[in-house]
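dumping this here so i dont lose it
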């Protein structure tokens, strides 16, 4: 079964569930301003590609007098904040757009140097509440954003030396996917993930280091 057929079947099942409970006294999720906070983990990967575009073994690679340190993939804590506008077109379908901030804690990067990431983005999402009852609803959502990834270094001297060689591109286009439940119209709890598409990177000639946090979190939002 290909992935497109799988998601088509899942969507059809959820839509049928939504129709089946259409005669129940339903709540309609509030539309309006919302603020939220997320907490979770960031699986931060750093990948190295040589001048031929071939991914290399991460450990012990020399980079113009620098050495990568730690592991190719490390899991760190993540904290996120968001504020935006939530609009339901009917009991089932809605959209929202919001400003999003994600902080992923420090991980090893170079010898004697760690990095943390700060993602600042604008995200637009499509929401589908497939189950609605008097006191709560359950739904799924997916969307795409655009923004910039800021890097924080714990050693500014090493950063200064490193960036004499490597130029940084922090442009990001994250995809968000998740499931949510809304209680008494105003309290939304979500489990979600953000997946990087365009990968931020350091480049030197044709060599590049890609920095990719995959974020998994649980969050709470209040809808005004």
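and the seq i came up w/
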């Amino acid at each position: 079964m290909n992935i497109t057929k799988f998601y088509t079947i899942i969507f059809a099942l959820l839509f049928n569930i939504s129709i089946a409970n259409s005669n129940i006294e339903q709540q309609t999720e509030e539309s309006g301003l919302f603020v939220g906070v997320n907490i979770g983990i960031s699986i931060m990967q750093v990948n190295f590609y040589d001048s031929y575009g071939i991914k290399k073994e991460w450990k012990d690679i020399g980079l113009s007098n620098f050495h990568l340190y730690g592991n190719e993939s490390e899991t760190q804590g993540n904290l996120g904040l968001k504020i935006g506008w939530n609009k339901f077109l009917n009991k089932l379908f809605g959209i929202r757009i919001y400003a999003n901030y994600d902080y992923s804690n420090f991980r090893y990067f170079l010898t004697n140097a760690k990095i943390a990431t700060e993602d600042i983005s604008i995200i637009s999402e499509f929401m589908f509440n497939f189950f609605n009852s008097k006191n709560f609803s359950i739904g799924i959502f997916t969307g795409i954003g655009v923004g910039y990834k800021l890097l924080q270094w714990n050693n500014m001297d090493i950063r200064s030396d490193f960036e004499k060689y490597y130029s940084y591109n922090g442009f990001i286009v994250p995809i968000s996917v998740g499931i949510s439940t809304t209680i008494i119209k105003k309290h939304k709890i979500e489990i979600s993930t953000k997946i990087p598409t365009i990968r931020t990177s350091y480049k030197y000639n044709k060599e590049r280091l890609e920095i990719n946090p995959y974020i998994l979190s649980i969050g709470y939002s209040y809808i005004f």
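The two ends are 42 Å apart (CA to CA).
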